[in-house]
Description:
alpha+beta, 17 helices, five-stranded mixed barrel, eight-stranded mixed sheet, BirA Bifunctional Protein, domain 2, single chain, 494 residues
Amino acid sequence: MEPQNEQEARRRQKLAAWRDAGDAYPNDFRPTHLAGGLLRDHGGDDNATLEQAAVTVTLAGRLMARRVMGKAAFAHLQDRSGRMQLFIRRQDLPAGDYDGLFKDLDIGDIIGIGGVLFVTKTGELSVRVNKLRLLVKSLRPLPEKFHGLSDAETRHRRRYVDLIINRSTRELFRRRSAIVEQVRRFFLRHDFLEVETPMMQAIPGGALARPFVTHHNALDMPLYLRVAPELYLKRLVAGGFERVFEINRNFRNEGVSARHNPEFTMLEFYQAYADHRDLMDLSEELLRDLTGGRTLRYQGRDINFARFERMTLAESLLRHNRELNEKVLGDAEQLRAAARRLGVDAADGDSLGVLQEKLFEKTVEHRLQNPTFITAFPVEVSPLSRRSDSDPALSDRFELFIAGLEVANGFSELNDPEDQAERFRRQAERQDSGDAEAMHFDADYIRALEYGLPPTAGEGIGIDRLVMLLTDSASIRDVLLFPLMRPSAADAGS
């Protein structure tokens, strides 16, 4: 437990006195109103109207401010909907409650009040309090009023305090919830079925990523937290659910950064009798639905959601690298040398497709500000994608970039079981050679393909990164209620 400061010690002494007096943590107080609802319904009323209506209210929330003026005081109560001003006089409370209860309260205490609405001389809707109860004693002082809670690491570690203090944080996470709900409604309107697939999997698949490993004691078998729901969702399409989507968590045993958290939320959706071009169209429609097709400001730059660009991976490399040409781009040795000159970690064994992808990540991604679909990825870096009919070395795959962020990855699905089995075998070889992100061989998924997967396209959209864009948040930690962080000394406790 952290050492107590003087303020905390006084608060604990007050709690001890409350324990001696009776129930220190009651649970029989029921508010009848919310601050935000009262401000909405009566914010424009004058005193004459309120006196005639005699609006009696009961509120519960956290004491956020207090100004005592002898026998009367003003205070602010904060509940989930907003803040309400309270006017508290000694003469309006039961005997002893003003000096013995109200004056003994601390900022942060959770209280219940009853009273009548009125308007102050300055025109602010308030409650004239005639009933007051302490519901929960706050043992730790809130951050100082004028300094607030501005340190990013503390805000992320102690999100509960951040939510108490910062209205902007509360609004951001309400906005996140609304974005997810809007996404859900969009897919339901398009006749997609929402489903849930396993979080713990015997064979991890659906993405090139290192999984978290756990163990099931009763069955005495290893299990993996899923890196993606893809292979299960495609099993459902094979089973006859021709349009499915899932909004849920993925887990990847990777580093933490402003763009990465090992636990994150992903939207994945699959549509039978569609290809990657159809899903690019659908993605544009979704983003226009979320943004109104407007230009939004993100981290000081304007992002135009009225126009989406499309270019191949090769075209993007040539556009953003003057030292490259089509000949170099098509020759592994020349491209390896060029990549090394550009500061890319190009290994001797890297294939042409791997080199192209590495160069793209190093030299192009961050330059894609307005919404841009990058298409025609090499097959060797797209193990679940359908081959292009025009060039079997390329896949019918795309990634969507906005403000330098990869927001979506989609493709026409590989539904040839023999081709998929061969790609799984090559992935298994890479895994045997030490590649922790390579895919496992999933025999049951091959079996599902052998029953027949309709021509299908699928896509994953990172919800956290999407929320970052729509709320102008610089870091993924800002849009996660509880991002993963290394424990601090204060978290150790005793």
